[in-house]
């Protein structure tokens, strides 16, 4: 039977319908929309391009998560597989191995992870959650899945213990009882150790919750149970009675055995450690307070902070290691959290930057009854993971190969570049490696389990993150990994803020005045531009050579004086600076004169930050070329920057905010344009303003919730940098009310009120409800006017009211003149309109190929060659010669927060309109390339990810992927080419996803294997005497004791077994349909072959042993064959 593809039918219906996905010109409200009928000019232009993308090319799935697990709670390690697991408060589990082996899985309930236990070398993991549920995870597949779950109904889980090579899990509860669970079936055994039977009958108080469970290294039939109140019970599992009991005055936090099973050590709430001997349980064999002050004989040591955990690890050739967290003296309140390592008489205190959540000592052997030989300590902090090398006396830490420091300073913005120039990664790494920290251990990272290899897609990928402290990090994101390449500190451009000095700065931004707000990078020219929360823009150029130079800065006064006009008076001041002001010698807009009122309160023409005036040494890498700062105007601080764009080919940078637009020539270091948004519409006579009707200074009042959420995108009149910055660096994860899905964006009221008005007829007398912010900028070779026959440099300007303005850039014709002659910036008078704030622009040529903005080929600005007298700029224009022919045209794609439109230029005819959403609004939109074709990707505030083909805007994908729970997601979500996207899923983690069907199909080949077949190390030979007198642990049969035949069934009301979807998910992860069956069969065959191989090896070993025994017996027989009995 032929497979029926419903999506292809939808594609056919959409393609066959002329008006599909579009609205009529009356509904769109677009200026110059033209006819949308196929018979007209628009129809003739439509039929030229055959689109290749269909809905079969798209599918959404998560790929990999980078960064430190947010709010960690638990830690586990498999000493044979050498993989590490971290549980979090949000129910997530991260499993880490060698670089490239990094897996994230999530409990559906979202309950916090209390404890993790590996089934050592079995490819499985047990997790205990705060909702009193045990889960068994299958790690033999690349995406782990739950096989079984067991929900406790009447008791709360406090501690779990799984002995090595055992299938019975001990579970302690808050009531003090101990239950036993079969790991294979996940069924509760009828064997229960009740708290009232464990303690003495004469005891009148409850011992408290179970805080520790472990079997004796000497005898597996004995279980050590630790209770919170200081009681320890040594329970004989066979006789079902307490063999001995230990009592101590202080509460117990943790217990650990000596490997011989004769002694164990406890940590207590008073900062003491007690060592107990099983032969004399009446009192501790030894009591120490490691950090307590020594007292006189007979007096108890001074109490200290609780020792939350202790580990007692023995070595064959040296003194044992005693490692514990906490226990510091109370009089040292300012000391940071610490980990103490006691080795012999030496005591080393390692201070940590963050509180310690958990730590584990990594040992060579998985057997508890052997010398442990510890080689490292894994310390899980609240915001970091470190490993300490125990093999060196100074205890250095290992260099962490994982990107655990993404959140070193809060992430404020992100950028993602796929298929970028391949040499960039090597260049950035070669510069960044010189600034790496030193002092790490010379040994390799010990968590090196799993297997990983490069997938089929190996194109270069780079992620850039901006941070609250002004730093910018470049990351290599190729092949599903993340490694930091280079770090740039923008704060080095400015003077340090002194305490009590510079009050104008603290009034704007209370802290982190260097926080990065927007970044713009041209990988081909290596020009990098960044804007900050203190209303500054810095342009960086890349150089391999160190220089010492002064930083050039410009101060721009940007104001919209329309608000101050009450009576209609014509003004004589032109909106543009004179030509003389564009010359380098005269900068009327960049002066630094401070104008203060007579009372000394009014601030005017003062920047928020002070640029260093002295020569600055700039190391190789990105070096500041120009700093542009907006200044205070009439006592009002500058508004935050809402849009940013730079063109290396034109040598121009443009940025805007809710006040207006600024265009700067960064080659000549001059301001070309500084104009209020309303003035950009007056294109009839650029040097004479028309009288305006009187109007009131209205303030736009938006919905408080929406304004607080989207303050980074659309500021209003009353907004200041301080209020918007609070949402910029907000790291809390408080859920957002459902009203967000139904609320409108902050400028929606103003846009809808003014949307139907004619901008061309009454542009000088419009009565607006809010300032019109510049929300999008785009440099491109295009047609600036309707009658143009050739392309020319243009700047597209999009506003928060949905208006698009085309600004013509008149550049000098030659290279020599470009450095001396002024650049003319002239609004062309062309307007396009959309519904909602404009988000992005892009252009396609007549064949439907995406046009890239022109750029300048990179050349080291500090490179000096004596033989090279003249240097010419090499420009790449990215358009064919035919595009300049008369009668040619191009497509311009414009997307707003409500709709997308495709215009044909120079006719400015609207060819396609697609109303993307009516009840919500688009947060992020980008024109991307996938499978050599362009498409429009959108992320909506209601959580939908939508893909549309270009230029027809046919819907290809619409998936309800991620509801917007906080503004961090909206601020950091970004699309890129090749079907890739990312966002900051938590304050410490980056989540990458793909919307490519091909990548979803190949995702299994790109992910690492968590489990690799490794033979379990053999136990050491115990010797004849130890085997004879070492206890009965070798003959202990748990199956006989805990099985249903002996122990009976547990009460059904005590716990509920829940089958997991592991097998189904495993098939989905491997492939679909028949491929899934084949994969499952292949895995089963592999496991069967592995078991047969192990059996064959063991059989061969037994045969070898038998042959050796036979040989020795024969030799012994020959030796004593002829001897008499009295000769022995």
TrEMBL record:
Region described as Disordered: spans on this chain: 15-42, 568-598, 742-763
Positions of WD repeats: 106-147, 245-286
Compositionally biased tracts (Low complexity): 16-39, 579-598
GO biological process, one term: Golgi to plasma membrane transport
Domain of life: Eukaryota
Cellular component GO terms held in the UniProt record: plasma membrane; secretory granule; SNARE complex
Subcellular location: Cell membrane; Cytoplasm
Keywords: Cell membrane, Coiled coil, Cytoplasm, Exocytosis, Membrane, Phosphoprotein, Protein transport, Repeat, Transport, WD repeat
A molecular-function term among this protein's GO annotations: syntaxin binding
Positions with biased composition (Basic and acidic residues): 742-754
Domain V-SNARE coiled-coil homology: 1063-1123
SUPFAM superfamilies xref list: SNARE fusion complex, WD40 repeat-like
Topology in the lipid bilayer: Peripheral membrane protein
Ribosomal protein among keywords: no
Stored InterPro entries: Lethal2_giant, Lgl_C_dom, LLGL2, V_SNARE_CC, WD40/YVTN_repeat-like_dom_sf, WD40_repeat_CS, WD40_repeat_dom_sf, WD40_rpt
Quaternary data: Interacts with STX1A and STX4.
Function of the protein: Plays a role in vesicle trafficking and exocytosis inhibition. In pancreatic beta-cells, inhibits insulin secretion probably by interacting with and regulating STX1A and STX4, key t-SNARE proteins involved in the fusion of insulin granules to the plasma membrane. Also plays a role in neurotransmitter release by inhibiting basal acetylcholine release from axon terminals and by preventing synaptic fatigue upon repetitive stimulation. Promotes as well axonal outgrowth.
Family the UniProt entry places it in: Belongs to the WD repeat L(2)GL family.
Protein name, UniProt field: Syntaxin-binding protein 5-like
The species this protein was found in: Mesocricetus auratus (Golden hamster)
Gene: Stxbp5l
């Amino acid at each position: 039977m032929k497979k029926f593809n419903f999506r292809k039918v939808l594609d056919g219906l959409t393609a066959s319908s002329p008006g599909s996905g579009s609205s009529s010109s009356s509904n769109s409200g677009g200026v110059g929309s033209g006819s949308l009928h196929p018979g007209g000019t628009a129809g003739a232009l439509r039929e030229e391009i055959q689109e290749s993308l269909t809905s079969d090319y798209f599918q959404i799935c998560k790929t990999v998560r980078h960064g430190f697990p947010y709010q960690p709670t638990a830690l586990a390690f498999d000493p044979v597989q050498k993989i590490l697991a971290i549980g979090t408060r949000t129910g997530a589990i991260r499993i880490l191995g060698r670089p490239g082996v990094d897996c994230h899985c999530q409990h559906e309930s979202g309950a916090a992870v209390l404890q993790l236990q590996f089934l050592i070398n079995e490819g499985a993991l047990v997790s205990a959650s705060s909702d009193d549920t045990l889960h068994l995870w299958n790690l033999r597949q690349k995406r782990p899945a739950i096989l079984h779950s067991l929900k406790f109904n009447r008791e709360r889980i406090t501690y779990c213990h799984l002995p090595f090579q055992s299938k019975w899990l001990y579970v302690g509860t808050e009531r003090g009882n101990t239950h036993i669970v079969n790991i294979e079936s996940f069924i509760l055994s009828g064997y229960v150790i009740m708290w009232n039977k464990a303690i003495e009958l004469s005891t009148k108080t409850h011992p408290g919750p179970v805080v520790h469970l472990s079997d004796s290294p000497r005898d597996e039939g004995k279980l050590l149970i630790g209770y919170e109140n200081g009681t320890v019970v040594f329970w004989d599992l066979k006789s079902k009675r307490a063999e001995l009991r230990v009592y101590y005055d202080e509460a117990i936090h943790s217990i650990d055995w000596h490997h011989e099973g004769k002694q164990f050590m406890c940590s207590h709430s008073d900062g003491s450690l007690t060592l107990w001997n099983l032969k004399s349980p009446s009192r501790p064999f030894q009591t120490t307070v490691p950090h307590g002050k020594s007292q006189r004989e007979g007096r108890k040591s001074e109490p200290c902070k609780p020792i939350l955990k202790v580990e007692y690890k023995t070595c064959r050739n040296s003194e044992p290691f005693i490692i514990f967290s906490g226990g510091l003296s109370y009089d040292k309140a300012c000391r940071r959290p610490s980990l103490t390592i006691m080795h012999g008489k030496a005591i080393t205190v390692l201070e940590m930057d963050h509180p310690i959540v958990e730590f584990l000592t990594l040992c060579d052997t998985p057997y508890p009854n052997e010398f442990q030989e510890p080689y490292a300590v894994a310390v899980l902090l609240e915001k970091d993971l470190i490993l300490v090398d125990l093999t060196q006396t100074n205890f250095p830490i290992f260099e962490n190969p994982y990107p655990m420091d993404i959140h070193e300073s809060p992430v404020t913005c992100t950028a993602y570049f796929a298929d970028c120039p391949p040499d960039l990664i090597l260049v950035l790494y070669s510069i960044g490696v010189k600034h790496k920290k030193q002092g790490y251990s010379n040994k390799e990272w010990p968590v090196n389990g799993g297997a990983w290899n490069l997938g089929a897609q190996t194109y270069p990928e780079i992620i850039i993150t901006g941070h609250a402290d002004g730093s910018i990090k470049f990351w290599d994101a190729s092949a599903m990994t993340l490694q930091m390449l280079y770090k740039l500190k923008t704060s080095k451009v400015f003077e340090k803020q002194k305490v009590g000095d510079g009050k104008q700065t603290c009034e704007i931004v209370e802290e982190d005045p260097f926080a990065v707000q927007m970044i713009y990078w041209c990988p081909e020219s290596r020009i990098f531009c960044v804007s900050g929360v203190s209303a500054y823009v810095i342009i960086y150029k890349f150089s391999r050579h160190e220089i010492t130079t002064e930083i050039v800065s410009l101060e721009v006064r940007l104001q919209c004086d329309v608000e101050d006009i009450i009576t209609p008076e014509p003004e004589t001041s032109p909106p543009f600076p004179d030509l003389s002001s564009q010359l380098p010698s005269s900068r009327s807009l960049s002066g630094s004169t401070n104008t203060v009122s007579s009372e000394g309160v009014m601030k005017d023409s003062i920047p928020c930050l002070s640029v260093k005036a002295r020569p600055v040494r700039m190391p190789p890498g990105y070096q500041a070329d120009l700093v542009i700062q907006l200044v205070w105007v009439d006592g009002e601080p500058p508004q935050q920057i809402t849009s940013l764009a730079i063109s290396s080919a034109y040598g121009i940078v443009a940025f805007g905010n809710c006040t207006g637009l600024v265009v700067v020539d960064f080659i000549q270091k001059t301001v070309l344009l500084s104009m209020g948004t309303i003035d950009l519409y007056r294109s009839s006579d650029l040097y004479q303003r028309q009288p305006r009707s009187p109007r009131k200074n209205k303030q736009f009042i938006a919905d408080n919730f929406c304004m607080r959420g989207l303050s980074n995108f659309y500021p209003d009149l009353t907004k200041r940098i301080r209020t918007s910055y609070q949402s910029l660096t907000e790291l809390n994860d408080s859920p957002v009310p459902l009203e967000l899905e139904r609320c409108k964006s902050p400028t929606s009221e103003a846009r809808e009120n003014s949307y139907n008005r004619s901008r061309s007829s009454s542009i000088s007398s419009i009565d607006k409800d809010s300032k019109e912010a510049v929300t999008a900028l785009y440099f491109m070779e295009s047609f600036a006017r309707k009658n143009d026959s050739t392309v020319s440099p243009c700047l597209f300007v999009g506003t928060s009211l949905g208006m698009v303005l085309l600004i013509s850039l008149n550049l000098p014709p030659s290279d020599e003149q470009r450095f001396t002659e002024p650049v003319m910036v002239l609004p062309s008078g062309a307007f396009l309109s959309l519904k909602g704030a404009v988000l992005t622009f892009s252009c396609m040529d007549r064949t439907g190929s995406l046009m890239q903005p022109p750029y300048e080929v990179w050349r080291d600005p500090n490179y000096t060659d004596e033989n090279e007298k003249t240097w010419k700029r090499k420009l790449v224009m990215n358009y064919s010669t035919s595009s300049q022919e008369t009668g040619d045209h191009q497509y311009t794609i414009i997307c707003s927060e409500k709709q997308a439109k495709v215009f044909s230029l120079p006719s400015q005819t609207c060819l396609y309109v697609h109303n993307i959403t009516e009840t919500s609004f688009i947060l992020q939109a980008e024109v991307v390339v996938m499978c050599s074709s362009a498409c429009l990707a959108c992320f909506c505030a209601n959580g939908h990810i939508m893909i549309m083909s270009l230029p027809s805007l046919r819907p290809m994908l619409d998936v309800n992927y991620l509801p917007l729970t906080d503004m961090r997601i909206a601020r950091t979500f970004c699309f890129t080419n090749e079907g890739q996207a990312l966002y900051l899923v938590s304050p410490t983690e980056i989540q990458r996803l793909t919307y490519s069907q091909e990548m979803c199909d190949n995702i299994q080949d790109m992910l690492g294997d968590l489990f690799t077949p490794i033979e379990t190390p053999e136990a050491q030979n115990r010797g004849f005497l130890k085997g004879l007198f070492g206890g009965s642990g070798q003959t202990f049969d748990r199956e006989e004791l805990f099985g249903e035949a002996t122990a009976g069934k547990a009460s059904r009301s005590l716990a509920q077994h829940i089958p997991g979807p592991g097998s189904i998910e495993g098939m989905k992860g491997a492939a679909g349909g028949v491929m899934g069956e084949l994969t499952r069969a292949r895995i089963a065959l592999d496991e069967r072959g592995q078991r047969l191989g192990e059996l064959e090896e063991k059989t061969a070993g037994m045969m070898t042993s038998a042959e050796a025994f036979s040989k020795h017996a024969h030799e012994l027989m020959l030796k004593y064959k002829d001897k008499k009995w009295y000769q022995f």
